[in-house]
Amino acid sequence: MFGLFKKKTEVEKLQKTFKKLMKEWHTLSSLNRAESDKKFEEAEAIAKQIEILKNETV
């Protein structure tokens, strides 16, 4: 209940997006390889952004 009004950090938002993209990538991997590769590239870009933000806070 205490976290009810807590705002998400940029890293948390990116991690949620990353998780969604990886799920879509996995689903598409058996259906459409080209679209699957695009989703994976998007997820990699998000992962790099997460790493940059994590390194800035340290």
UniProtKB/TrEMBL annotation:
Name used for this protein in its record: Lacal_2735 family protein
Source organism (scientific name): Hwangdonia lutea
